[in-house]
TrEMBL record:
One of its GO terms (biological process) is ergosterol biosynthetic process. The keyword Oxidoreductase applies. Belongs to the short-chain dehydrogenases/reductases (SDR) family. ERG27 subfamily. This is NAD(P)-binding protein. InterPro entries: Ergosterol_Biosynth_ERG27, NAD(P)-bd_dom_sf. GO terms for molecular function: 3-beta-hydroxysteroid 3-dehydrogenase (NADP+) activity. The keyword Oxidoreductase applies. Keywords: Lipid biosynthesis, Lipid metabolism, NADP, Oxidoreductase, Steroid biosynthesis. GO terms for cellular component: endoplasmic reticulum membrane; lipid droplet; mitochondrial outer membrane.
Amino acid sequence: MDSSEDEQQSVYTVLVTGANSGLGFSTCCRLIDEFLHSRPQTQTLQLIITTRSTSKNKDTQARLHQHLQKTLQKADKSTPGISQVLSARVKISGEQVDLCNLRSVKELGNRLVKRGTRLDVLICNAGIGGWKGLNWPAAIWSMLTDWKHSCTYPTYKLGFVGSVSPQGGEKKEEQLGEVFTANVFGHYLLAHAVAPLMKGDETKEPGRIIWISSIEAYAHAFNPEDLQALKSDAAYESSKRLTDLLILTSELPSTKPSTSKFLQEKDDQRKPKMYLAHPGVCATSIADLPLVLWYAMLLAQYIARWLGSPWHPVSSYLGAVSSAWLSLAPFSSLASQENNEGKAKWASSTDVFGNERVVRTEVGGWGWGGRVGEKADGKMRLSANRWRGQEDVTKESREDFEVLGQKVWKEMEELRQSWEKKLDV
Ligand SMILES: NC(=O)c1ccc[n+]([C@@H]2O[C@H](COP(=O)([O-])OP(=O)(O)OC[C@H]3O[C@@H](n4cnc5c(N)ncnc54)[C@H](OP(=O)(O)O)[C@@H]3O)[C@@H](O)[C@H]2O)c1
């Protein structure tokens, strides 16, 4: 191996979408902290952040550099002088993309592919809620009567119905569901474009595509006849259920005809791996609330944690633990966990004191690893903290999950191909 190859190998490149706020920003902070502590001194982290505007990008880079300085100061206290070595191991650069504008997504994909730099991790974090407000009487009643459950699985959010993002025209065929595009389809197109930069070979592990879901990805929120959730007032929950369906079935033989095209697969062993994570419930700006109500929500979330909810990291830094872990954990350790216990939805969780950990989350029809017969009992207080509508996985529900996964993979691929053609024109 010549020295330039050696140098190339020691750079670990991670791209995070929606990095300017909430979980995206905290994921970047965690990646910096954990990379410096867990990876060998010969490795450098190249962090590529995406935002929707250049000003947000500049500001985010400045805030990340401030965070890096704080981390270095702490390191210097325990090992004087180490900061000089460490600071050279983090490089931050930026890109702009609006995931609701497919042309902008395609342009970003083209820029990255043209540059040809290997991409080790893509974190599909950016997202929107698509909510217009809350049903206040229902919110107050359910909080007072059922605090922990209603803070975790709220039934009082009001979503916009039929919001679209125009792709250059007003005609129906030139529009896409807004939440669907921001949360799933924009990332889907981007991941497809950069997949060739993420392949593994004899010297490199395959790259990792990490999709961010939610604890609110209810099976009933997704209507297979309405992929983009245009007729639904739960477009957010639908987009997250779609994410679960896609990623959890992505390694099954039945979805291979679609996934191999999506990942531009030429050789099975080299394709990037897809992982599914969710941050639990965190206080971020995704719920667009006035300041006073934002603080009320913060307090409500802490109370839910103190009442025993494992799903309330509350702080976005704690919420980022699952995506940072999936980004940096040894590839072999992730592979053995998913091979032994099945493909998982990895969650950020905390105990009442805020001690974090990454745990598997139950998914309707799939369970914790796509295995029939698993029970909630005994799984980390989960029987008491499960969504009340959740049922144990049965042979039939597991089969239905896979059939639906196969269907949505096929539809997503058809949609991608038709939009790629339109964008080429
Ligand atoms: N907070 C939670 O409790 C929670 C729970 C479960 C899952 N999540 C998921 O975590 C992810 C991050 O959410 P968050 O809570 O951190 O929310 P946030 O603070 O509102 O951050 C969302 C990020 O996505 C970006 N974004 C939104 N629409 C975009 C678009 N069309 N193109 C490009 N970027 C776009 C935003 O950029 P702008 O600043 O330009 O709008 C922002 O950087 C989302 O996928 C969300 O569904 C959050």
